[in-house]
Design brief:
Length: 270
């Protein structure tokens, strides 16, 4: 009797510590299914892939030709319709000097469609660089310089600052009938500009924002009325400005009651 009880206890213990069985089929079946799907995708892609037979380029092209665009992506075209990397194509097209933006898309069954926008030059930088409408230098050595563009100059690392000031000032002058022809920032940090009517504006190195604000609020309207009589405007005063009149021009009559510092400076008081 004791032997039978001992045997039952051993059998019970053996059943307690037995390793659980794993249904291998439950793991292998989904894995095999996934492998089949992936393999089918790659095989079908290779079977359906075909050579790229044509590309189309849309957009107003003036500085860049469709041939230049095709040459830029020629290495990618040999990969095939599906295998071609459209992202890399887009990057290569946008790397061209006069391209501002590009889109690349597949068109079944064997065509690549490309859309491009060209840079719009807004100003000349230095001797032969070109800035776009956002003030970005996109060409450093342009072969053909549009004569009608304004000229901006300054240290190379200050191109963005010069462009921003030009755009901000010009935006407020245009409604007054004035425009900017030149903006210059010299190596000492002094600013000056020339208007389209030939009047020079000298801002100096200090308090540029305040002096620019005074110029736009007060001086610009004076120039609008008497541009032909004015040679330059000097904004390098702590309390106003002076105007250099052309020979034969008659300055405005002084008003003894006027205490406006800007008008005192207008009469020549530094």
């Amino acid at each position: 009797m004791a032997r039978k009880q001992a045997r039952r206890r051993k059998q019970k213990q053996a059943r307690t510590f037995r390793m659980p069985s794993i249904a291998v089929g439950r793991i292998l079946t989904p894995a095999v299914a996934i492998l089949i799907v992936v393999a089918t995708y790659h095989v079908s892609g290779k079977l359906l892939d075909r050579p790229i037979e044509s590309i189309s380029v849309s957009g107003p092209l003036q500085r860049v030709t469709a041939l230049q665009i095709e040459e830029a992506i020629s290495d990618e075209l040999d990969a095939g319709f599906f295998a071609a990397d459209v992202g890399r194509m887009q990057a290569k097209i946008q790397a061209l000097s006069w391209i501002d933006g590009a889109t690349v898309a597949r068109r079944w069954p064997n065509r690549i469609a490309i859309g491009v926008t060209e840079q719009v030059p807004a100003a000349i930088w230095g001797k032969s660089g070109l800035l776009n409408v956002r003030g970005e230098l996109f060409v450093t050595e342009a072969r053909h310089i549009p004569a009608e563009l304004p000229r901006l100059s300054g240290p190379d690392d200050r191109a963005d600052d010069v462009a921003r000031r030009y755009l901000a000032v010009r935006e407020q002058l245009i409604p007054l009938g004035l425009d900017v022809r030149r903006v210059r920032l010299d190596a000492r940090g002094a600013w000056d500009m020339t208007l389209a009517n030939g009047v020079d504006i000298r801002f100096g190195r200090r308090d540029i924002d305040e002096r620019t604000g005074l110029f736009l609020e007060v001086v610009a309207s004076i120039i609008t009325g008497r541009a032909a009589d004015i040679e330059f405007v000097d904004m390098r005063y702590g309390n106003g400005f002076t105007i250099g009149w052309n020979d034969g021009a008659v300055p405005p009559a002084a008003d003894p009651q006027d205490e406006d510092p800007a008008m005192l400076a207008l009469r020549g008081a530094p």
